[in-house]
Amino acid sequence: MKTTQGYYGSSHNPCTIFEHNGWYVVEGSQNVNQAGDGDIIRLGVDVETVQDFDCFTWPDGIHSEEDLEEAIDA
């Protein structure tokens, strides 16, 4: 599990990104994406450029690494 800083959106909005076992999410988002195994989410990544293989929504949004882990395990 890791937390890093990156960007999202066409305006390159700065954001915090949580990643665990190939799944990642922008802090506060309900959209959890799977980009595959490995170290895909790196410092400064623009998440709009990451190729996703799967996704799901988490109704309460993800606000921490623990929230992401809970959502993945559910």
Number of helices: 1
Low-confidence stretches: none
Q: Describe the main β-sheet briefly.
A: 5 strands, antiparallel
Structural class: mainly beta
Keywords:
74 residues, mainly beta, five-stranded antiparallel β-sheet, globular
Describe what this molecule looks like in 3D.
With 74 residues, the protein is mainly β. Helix content is 12%, strand content 36%. The chain has one domain. It has one helix at 65-73, and strands at residues 2-8, 13-20, 23-26, 31-34, 54-57. The chain has a five-stranded antiparallel beta sheet, covered by helices on one side. A hairpin with a 4-residue loop joins strand 1 and strand 2 (13-20). The model has no long low-confidence stretch (mean pLDDT 91).
Question: Helices and strands in order, then pairings?
Answer:
Blueprint: E1 2-8, E2 13-20, E3 23-26, E4 31-34, E5 54-57, H1 65-73
Antiparallel strand pairs: 1-2, 2-3, 3-4, 4-5
